[in-house]
Amino acid sequence: MQLQHQRAYTTASARLATEKVRVLSTIERLSHLPVAVAQQPDVQRLLSDPFDVAVQERVNAYLFNVATAAEASILYVLRKDALAVASSDYESGNSLIGNKFAFRPYFINAINQRKAHYFAIGITTGKPGYYIAQPIIVKQNVVGVAVVKISLQSLQNQWSNAPDQWLLLDEHDVVVLASDPSMRYQTATPLTAALREEFKQERKYANQPLPVLPILQNAAIAEAGLLQSLRSRYVQHSTPFTTLDWRLVKLVDTQLIKRTGIWVLLTMALLLGVALLGLLYWRERRRKQRLGLIAAEAERVNILNNQLQDEVTERKRAEADLRQAQSELIQTSKLAAMGQMSAAIAHEVNQPLSALKTYSASTRLLIERSRHDEALKNLTAMESVTDRMASLTGDLKVFARKSDTQQSVVALKQCLHSLVQHHNAPLIAPNVPIAWVAPEEEILVVGNQACIEQVVSNLIRNALDATKDQPEACVELELSGKDNRAVIRVSDNGVGLDDNRIHRVFDPFFTTKPMGEGLGLGLAIAHGIVEEMNGQLRAKNRTDIRGAVFEVTLLRQYQSVGVA
Ligand code: ADP
To answer: Quick one: which of 422, 438, 418, 442 has its CA closest to 430?
Structure first.
């Protein structure tokens, strides 16, 4: 825009210089005419004898010829009293001849031998023009004035075709010529009342109202700079005339500069838009890249998830398989146990049954032969066989049914002591006596005495069974109390427990004894009884010598009330 502004300035300056020359030449070209007219003898003669018609006719013809040849608007001669006595327009019906121009400054100046240049609108013609007057001097006396009126119409015609606005302002800032005729006779600055009065006297601008020209008043001065120029519609470039107090003005439309500005702005906006688009595109690309990375990560996680899920499914399947195998195993072992149990029960029952059958057959024979005493013996034997069967079914019943035995405080030392005494009684005279180790004090526990006796008897019986083939068998029953627990320990130096099957000794129907010697329920029942008394029954091998140790731990009771 600055460039555009400067270019406009340079162009305007150049154009102004050319146009100024043209204006000056239009005016100066005919400035010599009044001088020539003043020298003309007929003119001088006419002024000294105004009533010589022949001279007047000659002068008129002379003026007409000269004016026509020089393309002057009018060429005329005024007398000393300002009366027009001869004129180039003498033939027109509206001739100047006979009019007085005493009020015109050019006349006054010329008569007083001063420079007489003057712009005005013609009185008779109504046409504007530039007047140059020359005093006519005869024998050192001013006898009249020769005047030429120059039309500025040719300039006007040229400017009308130009694209720019041209204005010619006179010394009073009144537009005397404009490329747009409507601007003529308007002023750049408001006129004072005195001036207006003066113009009226001189009839300089005829009856023109001479208003202010807004375009000119609002136009910025070319030297004011770009910003100032942009605020106005026009910028005025002007040049003064050195010989004339006039100035020539060129109005440059700022529209072009503004349009350039708009183009620059649009281009900048476009560039900015492109940059912004680029930025957005770049950001979008980065976002997509990031999204791509996230998607890849998500895909990876997804794959891992799927793998994990597959693994979980696989594990679940393996677990299900395992469960299936386990349940099958349980089923198998259950079946095996049942088979074992059935075989054991069948054996246990069959034996006494066949015995009973044999006994009953022999009893019948003995009765038939009246051998009653022997028959009675048989019956006694049959009773003991049925008792054995009853005890077997009793064991089964105890195992099958959860007993609900009465609990009370049991004096353990006393209870076990009598058990050992009964076993070691001379009447029974066992092969292996039981060694009894007991603390000084009584040890009380909560439980059922009969059950405790049953458990301990069972353990002792097993120990005795295990030491059956030992030459120096030793079974020991030991009672001890530690903290809040009472421990009954039955140890032997028998065959000991098989390490691989030690965990199964409490399983029902687990037995290592031959058919008919054990049902494998003793330890299972004992375990159940001890648990019912909130105690623990544990089996292990001795560490010092070969042999097994069974330990019953019961909760100790310090209160002796209600000892059973
Ligand atoms: P049973 O005596 O009818 O076999 P139990 O349940 O009492 O049934 O015992 C199961 C098994 O535990 C026995 O067959 C035996 O193998 C083992 N057992 C029990 N006590 C002892 C012990 N003191 N020493 C070695 N083995 C024992």
So the answer is: 422
Q: Do the strands 247-253 and 234-240 form a parallel or antiparallel pair, or are they unpaired?
A: antiparallel
Q: Is the CB of 491 under 6 A from ligand 1?
A: no
Are residues 85 and 100 in contact, defined by beta-carbon separation less than 8 angstroms?
no
Q: What is residue 538's three-state secondary structure?
A: strand
Those residues with Cβ within 8 angstroms of residue 529's Cβ, 6 or more apart along the chain or in another chain: 403, 448, 451, 454, 455
What is the tens place of the pLDDT at every residue in 482-532? 888 999 999 999 999 999 889 889 988 888 887 667 778 889 889 988 998
Mutation probe of ligand 1 site: the residue of 505, 538, 541 with most atoms within 8 A of C-beta:
505
Q: Does 463 contact ligand 1 (Cβ within 6 A)?
A: yes
Q: Domains (ranges, CATH) in the chain?
A: 4-23+154-252 (3.30.450.20), 31-151 (3.30.450.20), 408-557 (3.30.565.10)
| Residue 474, ligand 1, Cβ within 6 A | no
Q: Which amino acid is at 379?
A: L
Structural tokens at position 187: 């002023």
Global pTM? 0.47
Q: Shortest CA distance to 38 belongs to which of 150, 132, 152?
A: 132
Q: For the chain, first and last CA: distance in Å?
A: 125
